């Protein structure tokens, strides 16, 4: 009986040691994504998963579906489970502050990807140089319009990455005779088409539309066709469907191409380095490039 008890105790100890070793080798990380209905976020999610495999991270992915309340619940659940780190693309850069403050109090490091979080303690932010990408789009607009014309833009209020893209575009055309005559929200392809139709009807002399994402670019392109407008479209993201849209539509003249896969893998590398006590930078900008067709 004594030998049996001793054997049981040793087995429990070994199992505990194995579990602890596994936990140490495989830190648990929560990732909360804005959506998975957008090609960019599908690619980002895949990049995170591949990066997690490379870094030996146990990654738990949740999708907010552009619902702030759901994202808050998902993050608070991660905090309750005392995960090792949180990776997040916020639905609302300001609205996510509450749960991220709870993560800070729980000593859980937070890394933002693609979209920043305002007034929150963040270990690192991995994203496309959104402002720089907006400047690239603006320069293409200046070239296309020879420095003169009317522009409308699609936006996503409350999303810092989108605001940075639009601001970069504005700054790139600031010293020209290009005027931005309207800005309307376009969170989905359908909403972008409707918003663009509204803007084109109100501003029939529109020469160019700047759309902050592939779906928005495609929606704007559909609006141009429906309205038989002379306007051309510049987009952002450059996922396969976006690249195809540039190749196949004369009125879609270019897209600023992001590297979502590199972004996801970089985020997982930053998480691994931070958890292993290595120094990490506060920002890791992923440089975008302009695609204007085959």
List the helices and strands and how they pair.
Blueprint (H helix, E strand, L loop, with lengths): L1 H24 L2 E6 L5 H17 L2 E6 L4 H13 L4 E4 L8 H9 L4 E4 L10 E5 L1 H16 L2 E8 L4 H14 L3 E9 L3 H14 L5 E3 L3 H14 L4 E6 L2 H9 L3 E6 L2 H16 L7 E4 L2 E3 L3
Parallel strand pairs: 1-2, 1-3, 3-4, 4-5, 5-11, 6-7, 6-8, 8-9, 9-10
Antiparallel strand pairs: 10-12
Helix pairs in contact: 2-10, 3-4, 5-6, 7-8
Mean pLDDT: 92
Parts with pLDDT < 50 across at least 5 consecutive residues: 4-23
Rounded to an integer, what's the Rg over CA atoms? 23 Å
**What order do the strands of the largest sheet run in, or round the barrel if closed?**
2-1-3-4-5-11
What is the count of distinct domains? 2
Q: Between the first and last Cα atoms, what is the distance in angstroms?
A: 78 Å
Number of helical stretches of at least 4 residues: 10
Please outline the major beta sheet: 6 strands, parallel
Which percent band covers the strand fraction?
Answer: 15-25%
* Estimated structural class: alpha/beta
Shape: elongated
CATH fold name of the largest domain: Rossmann fold
User: What's the CATH class of the largest domain, please?
Assistant: Alpha Beta
CATH superfamily label of the largest domain: Response regulator
Helical residue percent? 40-55%
GO biological process, one term: transmembrane transport
Keywords: Signal
Subcellular location: Cell envelope
Pfam families: Peripla_BP_4
